[in-house]
Rrf2 family transcriptional regulator (Paenibacillus hemerocallicola), 280 residues
Amino acid sequence: MNSEFTVAVHSLVFLAYLPEHMASSETIARNVSTNPTRIRKIMSFLREQGFVKTKEGVGGGYMLNCDPQKVTLAQIYRAMACGALKPNWNSGDPGQDCLVASNMQSVMDHIFREAEVQYRRCLEQTTICDVLEQVKHCQS
Amino acid sequence: MNSEFTVAVHSLVFLAYLPEHMASSETIARNVSTNPTRIRKIMSFLREQGFVKTKEGVGGGYMLNCDPQKVTLAQIYRAMACGALKPNWNSGDPGQDCLVASNMQSVMDHIFREAEVQYRRCLEQTTICDVLEQVKHCQS
DNA sequence: TTAAACTGTATGCATTAACATAACAGTATT
DNA sequence: AATACTGTTATGTTAATGCATACAGTTTAA
């Protein structure tokens, strides 16, 4: 899995943390430790999905457009990284005669899909606010 | 996640499928659709973990050394790919002042670990034999 | 109306990870 | 001693990932 999901969660938590619930791509990028372009791309996507609003022009930036107590990591995962747990290489080959070789691909597909459902189910337990609280009370 | 887990499962299922429960790296590689070197590396590892035995020399190869009805995909996952679901890029930076930036990394680590536990729990439901049966009765 | 500070988006670059290929030593069989 | 295997390392190639740059479009404000 690439880290767009991580960046999305971090950005939303950061926005929830700020009093104004608003920040520019550069401010977010500094906090996340990445570059503004990457933030803009990811935030654009989060806007399409309704998680944030954007304001262009001077004094613009991104602002929270959802209730951080209601939005779960599963929703963010679904939007950003669905299907990303499965390796992109497939074993076997549907063209071969052997039952194992020819069917393994679809069987493994099914297994990975099921396991990902469980993965998401775990992420359903945690909201953006939960993460924010954990961050605040993290002893480190 | 890379596909070593997939290859390992496929190889074990293939061995369980064969009457002699034995095959060379080249035979397995053909079935899996990859190269013998990769199979040997993965099978070497599976031998260390006790899943297979190897026989060197002429007429040698790999043979099942476990009960395919008892070995679950979770055990194989644990051996081959534990921790592989987490992205290897980390957001934030422990050196920053901001609570969010500095603690996000360890909070996300914890979340990914928990989610992976659920993922593995799903894989516990399926044995090598289960996969073999699914492969045999796959309508495709 | 013009400058400044933003977002949106495209493109190319650099690095790393993933998979393939080749080579060769070690080992068992015949 | 030839053959057919595994074990392991080194090297090549391709794809994924994240970074940097550039520039058009938008809003604000002097």
Q: What stands out?
A: Residues 24-26, 36-37, 40-41, 43-44, 54-62, 89 of chain B lie near DNA strand D (CB under 10 Å from a C1'). Strands of chain B lie at 22-23, 52-55, 61-64.
